[in-house]
């Protein structure tokens, strides 16, 4: 698979990042696969040339990192060839010091993630959200120290307001410290609010963009219908998705995806991911897979080039949404 | 009228800013603009009512708005130290590519021309009217700083742009040790609240004064539902024709309901809502009838309850960006 630079860094990543939120333990969320069920996906991803794997400490409360670490140890050729990304921020315990982006938690969180992943360093260490209870200078310095200690190679951020991300970037520059190189944000054909501020900021600053939920939790694959609002386990139990993707215009977008997919003889997922991959400044969507077909679709999407009129048709019905994915 | 600080500056401005876009020359610009003689009573009344904050721009009636404002302030004996005169640059003032934008060359010409038309030694607030993608921001930052240091301008401000662009300006100014923007003149009202996502939180975080344009959505919020379907001269001829959704009409109904309960005009309620937003300094209010100005003055003293603010805010639905590109 083609690899590209993550933003303006020298790091090369595959154009699909395997998201591992669905690997861990179903004790966390009922749609999560256990270790044995998860490992074949990581194996297949490596075989297909995917070198980019994203997890987070919070996913299955650490179990996702454990599963990814075990699988990479078993299947990955060499540490240097894979890019492992994880995140911190969310509560990993009941103490107010076991969450957020304080210097204290950053230092604990990275050591715990490294232990669970069984690796000496992570390639990309991401803040999972903006922490309104820690000065950004404190977080910037702590993350810089983690990089200088050799525990992380690059640092990245996730969903927040563009002005907050800009403040982080400019502050790190002012302090002469390690700057964020990536943004993991919520972006897909039925949630394009990031086109207002975040994507232009990232293009301007050379930040790699690695969106989460590129298929809108399956909504774009057409497995939910206007009438009954979805059939999958996750669709039925997922309040977040119900709140976000079910207006009429969103269904019209899905109809366009379906039309083009039929015409091309490919799956909806391939079309939706191919759209994402052609958006200027997008590095790699983060794709989850709980069936092997999900992963095969993502792999195939990289080779699918959409025509300008297809892109236009896919974008035509979008209507503005309120901000979803961060507060 | 109560004066407040413009953002975190020491400058004190009234909570209503008189917008002078509708004063100028209908022959040379837009048909809804008033001539000088018709315009002057509004400036006079504003001064008498304690409004000390006046906003214009070089492009309004191609300079005529600045001339009218300058003459009126002089003729009505405004105390120069008390009043706050704001103007703007960026829009095209001629056909040359050097008579537009935010290049060092144009900044230097534009300020001198504005001062000449206004008949003033300095303007209090000099604002960039938009973002200029054809000039490096460092060049603009440096030129605006020099204009301040030359004594031609006291403070600098910005107008509608993306929050990330404004952030970049502010950061660059800080990094270069140059004069920072102190205000943001953006598009904001009860039926266009997109600025609540990024720009208003940024301004609160940075202590930037917010002075929104079109606080009544070009009159939409001042009229009843029925009157809006008719349309005014301006709403029929406006280059930026806005379309309103059912949610917007529900907002308007909420305005009308509170206005009736309170025994005040719609526009006072809609302006009071703007004034109640955290970090808001002063809406820029245009007036082509004396009642427009009277309503704005009423709004400055109208305090809405939390329940009223909630009922006004509730119907809003997200929109595509309007006001900058």
Describe what you observe in this structure.
- The complex is a heterodimer of chains A (327) and B (325).
- In chain A, 41% of the residues lie in helices and 12% in strands.
- Chain A has twelve helices and ten strands.
- Chain A has helices at 35-47, 63-75, 103-117, 136-148, 162-175, 198-205, 233-237, 239-244, 248-264, 268-278, 292-301, 308-315; strands at 3-5, 12-14, 17-19, 52-54, 83-88, 122-127, 152-158, 180-184, 208-209, 286-287.
- An eight-stranded parallel sheet of chain A has the order 9-8-7-6-5-4-3-10. Chain A has a two-stranded antiparallel sheet with strand order 1-2.
- Chain A is globular and about 50 Å long.
- Chain B is an alpha/beta fold and 325 residues long.
- Helix content of chain B is 41%, strand content 12%.
- In chain B, the strands form two sheets. An eight-stranded parallel sheet of chain B has the order 9-8-7-6-5-4-3-10. Chain B has a two-stranded antiparallel ribbon with strand order 1-2.
- In chain B, strand 7 (153-159), helix 5 and strand 8 form a beta-alpha-beta unit.
- The model of chain B has no long low-confidence stretch (mean pLDDT 95).
- Classes of the chains: A alpha/beta (327), B alpha/beta (325).
- Chains A and B meet through helix 5 and helix 6 of A and helix 5 and helix 6 of B.
Please outline the helices and strands.
The complex is a heterodimer of chains A (327) and B (325).
Chain A: E1 3-5, E2 12-14, E3 17-19, H1 35-47, E4 52-54, H2 63-75, E5 83-88, H3 103-117, E6 122-127, H4 136-148, E7 152-158, H5 162-175, E8 180-184, H6 198-205, E9 208-209, H7 233-237, H8 239-244, H9 248-264, H10 268-278, E10 286-287, H11 292-301, H12 308-315
Parallel strand pairs in A: 3-4, 3-10, 4-5, 5-6, 6-7, 7-8, 8-9
Antiparallel strand pairs in A: 1-2
Chain B: E1 3-5, E2 12-14, E3 17-19, H1 36-48, E4 53-55, H2 64-75, E5 84-89, H3 104-118, E6 123-128, H4 137-149, E7 153-159, H5 163-176, E8 181-185, H6 199-206, E9 209-210, H7 225-230, H8 233-237, H9 246-262, H10 266-275, E10 284-285, H11 290-300, H12 306-313
Helix pairs in contact in B: 1-2, 2-3, 3-4, 4-5, 9-10, 9-12, 10-11
């Amino acid at each position: 698979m083609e690899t590209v630079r993550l933003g303006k860094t020298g790091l090369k990543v595959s154009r699909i990042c395997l998201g591992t939120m669905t690997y861990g333990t179903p004790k966390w969320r009922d749609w999560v696969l256990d270790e044995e069920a998860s490992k074949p996906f990581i194996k297949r991803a490596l075989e297909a040339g995917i070198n980019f794997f994203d997890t987070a400490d919070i996913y299955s409360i650490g179990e996702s990192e454990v599963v990814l670490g075990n699988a990479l140890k078993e299947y990955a050729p060499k540490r240097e060839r894979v890019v492992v990304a994880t995140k911190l921020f969310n509560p990993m315990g009941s103490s107010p010091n076991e969450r957020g982006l304080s210097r204290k938690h950053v230092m604990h969180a990275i050591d715990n993630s490294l232990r669970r992943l069984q690796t000496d360093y992570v390639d990309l260490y991401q803040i999972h959200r903006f922490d309104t209870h820690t000065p950004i200078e404190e977080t910037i310095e702590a993350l810089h120290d983690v990089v200088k200690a050799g525990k992380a190679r690059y640092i990245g951020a996730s969903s927040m307001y563009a002005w907050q991300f800009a403040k982080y970037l400019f502050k790190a520059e002012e302090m002469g410290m390690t700057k964020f190189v990536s943004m993991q944000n919520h972006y897909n054909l039925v949630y394009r609010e990031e086109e207002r501020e975040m994507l232009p900021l990232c293009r301007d600053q050379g930040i790699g963009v690695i969106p989460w939920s590129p298929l809108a939790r399956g909504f774009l694959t057409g497995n939910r219908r206007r009438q009954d609002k979805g059939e999958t386990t996750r669709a039925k139990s997922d309040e977040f998705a119900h709140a976000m993707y079910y207006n009429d215009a969103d269904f019209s977008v899905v109809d366009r995806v379906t039309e083009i997919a039929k015409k091309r003889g490919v799956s909806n997922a391939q079309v939706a991911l191919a759209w994402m991959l052609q958006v200027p400044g997008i590095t790699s969507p983060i794709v989850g897979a709980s069936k092997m077909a999900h992963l095969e679709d993502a792999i195939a999407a990289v080779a699918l080039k959409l025509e300008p009129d297809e892109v236009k048709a896919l974008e035509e019905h979008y209507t503005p949404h309120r901000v979803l994915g961060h507060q | 009228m109560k004066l407040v600080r413009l953002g975190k500056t020491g400058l004190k401005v009234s909570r209503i800013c008189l917008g002078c876009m509708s004063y100028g020359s209908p022959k040379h610009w837009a048909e809804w603009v008033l001539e000088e003689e018709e315009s002057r009573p509004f400036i006079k009344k504003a001064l008498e009512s304690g409004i000390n904050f006046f906003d214009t721009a070089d492009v309004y009636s191609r300079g005529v708005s600045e001339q009218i404002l300058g003459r009126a302030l002089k003729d009505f004996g405004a105390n120069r130290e008390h009043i706050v005169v704001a103007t703007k640059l960026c829009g095209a003032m001629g056909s040359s590519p050097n008579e537009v934008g935010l290049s060092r060359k144009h900044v230097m010409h534009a300020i001198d021309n504005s001062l000449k038309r206004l008949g003033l030694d300095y303007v209090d607030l000099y604002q960039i009217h938009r973002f200029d993608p054809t000039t490096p921001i460092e060049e603009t930052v440096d030129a605006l700083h020099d204009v301040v240091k030359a004594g031609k301008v006291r403070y600098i401000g910005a107008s509608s742009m993306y929050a990330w662009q404004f952030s970049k300006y502010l950061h660059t100014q800080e990094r270069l040790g140059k004069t920072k923007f102190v205000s943001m003149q953006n598009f904001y009202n009860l039926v266009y609240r997109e600025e609540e996502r990024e720009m208003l939180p940024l301004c609160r975080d940075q202590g930037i004064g917010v002075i929104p344009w079109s606080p009544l959505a070009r009159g939409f919020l001042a009229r009843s539902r029925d009157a809006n379907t008719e349309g005014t001269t301006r709403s029929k001829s406006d280059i930026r024709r806005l379309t309103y959704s059912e949610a917007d009409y529900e907002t308007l109904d909420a305005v009308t309901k509170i206005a009736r309960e309170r025994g005040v005009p719609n526009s006072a309620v809609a302006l009071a809502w703007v004034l109640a937003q955290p970090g808001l300094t002063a809406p820029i209010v245009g007036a082509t009838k004396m009642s427009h100005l009277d309503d704005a003055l009423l709004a400055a003293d109208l305090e809405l309850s939390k329940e009223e603010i909630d009922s006004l805010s509730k119907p809003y639905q997200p929109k595509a960006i309007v006001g900058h590109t």
